[in-house]
Amino acid sequence: MTAYPEKQTAITGIGQSKISRGAEKSALGLTIDAAMQAIENAGLKRSDIDGMACWPGGTGEANGFAPVSISVLQDALRLKLDWYSNASETSGQFGALFNAVGAIGAGLARHVLVFRTMYEATARKTSFANALNQPGERVHGIFNWYAPYHVYAAALQQALFFNLYVHKSGIRPEQVAQIALNGRRNAALNPAAVYRTPLTLDDYLASPVIATPLRLYDCDVPIDGSTAIILSHRDAAKDGPNPLTWIEAIGSSMRYRNSWVQLDALDTQAQPEVARMMWSRTDLMVKDIDVAELYDGFSYHTINWLENLGVCGRYEAKDFIGDGSRIALEGEFPINTNGGALSAGRMHAYGQVHEACVQLWGLGGARQVKGEPKVASLTTAGGPLAGSFLLARD
Fold this sequence. Notes:
By secondary structure, the protein is α/β, with parallel strands linked by helices. Helix content is 30%, strand content 17%. The protein has a single domain, classed as Thiolase/Chalcone synthase (Peroxisomal Thiolase, Chain A, domain 1, 3-Layer(aba) Sandwich), CATH 3.40.47.10. The protein has helices at 27-41, 70-77, 95-105, 120-123, 154-169, 173-187, 201-206, 234-237, 271-280, 299-308, 317-321, 340-343, 350-360; strands at residues 9-16, 51-54, 83-86, 111-119, 209-211, 214-215, 224-233, 245-251, 291-293, 375-382, 385-393. It starts with 8 loop residues before the first strand and ends with a strand. GO terms for molecular function: acyltransferase activity.
């Protein structure tokens, strides 16, 4: 197998602020908490950090989607950097991690601090924080195509794609429900999750339909919080306090039309080619995955990933999911062990990177998967964008 550069990149430290539906600190304060935790967890000092990356960068918008920029955090922590990167035009939310891998592989940095901060829960109290277009505003750009259908939020947009998937696959609501029910069961064992109260199938089926076929519990939870990850060159990770945990393979391809309104594959979006690229860069196979933290911005994305990773065949996720026992903590393919975005809170998959490390390092406590997990699968998704990678440890 070719020595791809990601195999020389390790995750050496993780940190996470308090996750809530109404923060007592500023967005920057939460980011500092997460960053300092991650640096300490890696056994490093601030002076060791010579690179930074985030997605999508500090947008400066009032919706809380990306409230903290690299420049602000760098100044707050007084970091001296040799490399940094933030950009929204990447292969999905993992673009910051993939950029960091490239920088480390090129010798531009040795220890990179990657962070993702959300402040949407607070922002939603005063604005349309989750809207693609705010009612009353002039519709512009690609959203001209959505406006006639009153698509003002991501749930409405994704429901259009999910409808096609439901039509082709025949998946039933009680099977879709298992993604949310599994997440809530796991969140009940996670003290940091924002929603921990029990959720039943009857509760799910009785919940409001946001946009057919998406129900309330199929949609992720806007939060205030920050997650930070330290990526280091593998050589620099050997003496760290955590088990050596490296990025085994990356899927970052963009082999479809890069268009939110002219998608080549409406019901799978960009996932299949991303998965193909990832599997082409490793000798590992699906059977080697011990735990999977699959993107669940909407339950639909998780269902898609089960198929596109090759866990089951196309349109066979409904049978694999069944009554939810296979994807449970004690099942053969445990997923979203911290509760995922549906119950732990919307960290745009960075919370699940944090959780994958928790699981691989055996720190999950009551939610720790059985055995000694060695390989985790991580994914993101949305429209023409997607990303995936395998995380492995000795």
